[in-house]
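Quick log. Single chain, no ligands specified.
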Amino acid sequence: MEPLASKIRPKTLEEFVGQEHLVREGKPLNAAIKQKHLFSFILWGPPGTGKTTLAKIYANSVRARFYELSAVSAGKADIRKIIVEDAGEESKILFLDEIHRFNKSQQDFLLPLIERGEITLIGATTENPSFEIIPPLLSRCRVFVLNELSEKEMIAIIKRTGFKIDKKAKDWLVAMANGDARQAITMLESASQLYNEITIESLKNTLQSKFLRYDKKGEEHYNTISAFIKSMRASQPDAALYYLARMIDSGEDPKFIARRMVIFASEDIGVAQPTALVVANDVFRAVETIGLPECGINLAHGAVYLSKSKKDRSAYSAYVSAMEDVKKYGNLPIPLSLRNAPTKFMKKLNYGKGYERYTKEDLLPDKLKGKKYLK
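-> predicted structure:
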């Protein structure tokens, strides 16, 4: 049976909800679709924000044959089959979901196909393309960033399902889905099949039922990584190892876990044990080099080390406080003594004048003199 999310999928930009910065009149994807401009691009954004839908709307607008593959299970042979199949004048669009799962060799394989125009590539990813896509391929694709759906947009999508749902249940569902339209629709569909009416209670029961197993793009994904991080923060290696094992067993991307550990090393441990960042980075490199299942050992090593490390969030908290002032005051004038003076004209304007390497003078802009971020 076709899933509800697929049944109600928008077929035109007029039906599409969200991503106004891309699909509104005059915006890049809107213009490309209206002009039937054929080019390769990558859609980067959180799960359930419309990547697949936009790819299909685009392919339909340029009248190209649409092929959809997941990088989790597909390989070079699947792409060769597409090239050979229906050889003719019709353009072919390859939509490659989770393109970050393709290794370097597989990504290299795509380059000549794009160059020769044998396929137009649309990649979809939840990971930063700068880290996950090889530079030659990235240079041949334009990157469009999708945003998490707002509450208003989520409500509009929920309304489209046609299910009767009261305000409290709707608010709970929007909060739980966290901007993921697919997750919200799947929850509603499952609840409607299991219960007579859709309430907060029936939605909660559905979430715990066997119909919604661990979903790497859904709530369980975020709940488990949250539990993993919080266990390390509380210096509880046993709990951290349990949640780590749970993620690995469920097929979570080990690089996602390792990346969060690198962030944790600076955010939560910081200056209390500077070597934590070194260890976390080495764990990330080991994961990239070794891969599953053996890299689970490296992750376990790192998780125990980070859990047992002393914690100090002062550097992170100071950065957040400094960022607040940047947002509040904008680009305040930098003291003249700190400014670069590469030309005589700049020197005449006193750029760099009075600079001392080891001064105790407050070097913040005048408006922030005396401010202490690091406490």
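Residues 210-214 have pLDDT under 50 and may be disordered.
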